[in-house]
Amino acid sequence: MPNSSKDTNLRTAAVIPAAGRGVRLGPGAPKALRTLGGLPILVHAVRAMARARAVSVIVVVAPPDGAAEVRALLDAHGLPETTDIKVVPGGPERQDSVRLGLAALPDDVDVVLVHDAARPLVPVETVEAVVDAVRGGAPAVVPGLPLADTVKSVDPDTGAVTGTPKRSLLRAVQTPQGFDRAVLAKAHSSVSGEVTDDAGMVEQLGVPVLVVPGHEEAFKVTRPLDLVLAEAVLARRRVNGH
Ligand SMILES: Nc1ccn([C@@H]2O[C@H](COP(=O)(O)OP(=O)(O)OP(=O)(O)O)[C@@H](O)[C@H]2O)c(=O)n1
Ligand SMILES: C[C@](O)(CO)[C@H](O)COP(=O)(O)O
């Protein structure tokens, strides 16, 4: 249970979906359990959420058959006692895992962050910007960055380009995505179909979603080169004393 200086009246929780295989990263253990800077990727992600002053509860969604292993791993890594950390088994798709995580939240939580375990290096400032915007009244908030590449829509059958969206209007969105709990719960109970993030589900309810500045270091470890970059970011942080 939370037991210290954190303001539990804020009732802010983070759900960390960590049940994916990491197919695009290549063969090996489930992605969240692979090593980055000598620690499992998941431990970095949990610490990143626990660092935010408002977050007093974290629900980690483990691979379906790996909840006991994840619990043991987190217990072995001395995570802050100021944060109540629960572990539940996940489902076949990311959205199933998030839904299972939401079901494990304590009743008194009213703000929920959903954060990919695969974004282990998100800075605390980004987490807190999202929390502050939700607590300031926005029902749904995502961190986002302008794009460096031009984006095309294509016909998936022929490869023919069907359009070029105006780049200045686009943002690459990251996590944590923050929500009023009731709004997120409604989205997860009523929206189905192919949706790649939680904000996309909320958008389908007609609820406005606000973008706040994201951070380059909040990138998602998806492919092998991302792991190389993540190691380099950690090395730079060590040199800078972080
Ligand atoms: N059934 C799933 C699938 C994904 N995730 C989580 O959702 C986050 C974002 O997903 P992604 O980066 O796509 O992870 P994977 O699904 O593991 O990657 P891949 O598609 O390469 O297998 C990750 O933290 C991942 O563990 C999850 O909890 N449950
Ligand atoms: C939620 C997300 O990280 C926002 O960018 C992204 O949509 C997850 O996609 P994935 O294919 O499940 O990694």
Describe the protein's architecture and organization:
The structure is a single chain. The chain is of the alpha/beta class and 242 residues long. The protein has helices at residues 41-50, 67-76, 94-103, 124-135, 181-190, 198-203, 224-239; strands spanning 12-17, 35-36, 39-40, 55-62, 84-89, 111-114, 140-145, 153-154, 161-163, 172-173, 177-180, 210-213. Mean pLDDT is 94; it is low at 1-5. It has a single domain (8-239), classed as Spore Coat Polysaccharide Biosynthesis Protein SpsA, Chain A, CATH 3.90.550. The strands form three sheets. Strands 1, 4, 5, 6, 7, 10, 11 and 12 form an eight-stranded mixed sheet that branches. Strands 2-3 form a two-stranded antiparallel ribbon. It has seven helices and twelve strands. The structure holds cytidine-5'-triphosphate and ligand LQXTBERG. The site of the ligand C[C@](O)(CO)[C@H](O)COP(=O)(O)O has 8 residues, from loops.
Oligomer: single chain
What would you say the CATH architecture is? Alpha-Beta Complex
Shape: globular
So what's the CATH class?
A: Alpha Beta
Count of the separate structural domains: 1
Integer-rounded radius of gyration: 18 Å
Secondary-structure element pattern, one letter each: EEEHEHEHEHEEEEEHHEH
Weakly predicted, low-confidence segments: 1-5
Helix content: 25-40%
Mean pLDDT: 94
Count the beta strands.
Answer: 12
CATH topology: Spore Coat Polysaccharide Biosynthesis Protein SpsA, Chain A
Tell me about the largest β-sheet.
8 strands, mixed
How would you classify the helix and strand content by structural class?
alpha/beta
Instruction: Kindly report how far apart the N and C termini lie.
Output: 28 Å
By DSSP (H or I, 4+ residues per run), the number of helices equals: 7
The ligands bound in this entry are: cytidine-5'-triphosphate, ligand LQXTBERG
CATH superfamily: Spore Coat Polysaccharide Biosynthesis Protein SpsA, Chain A
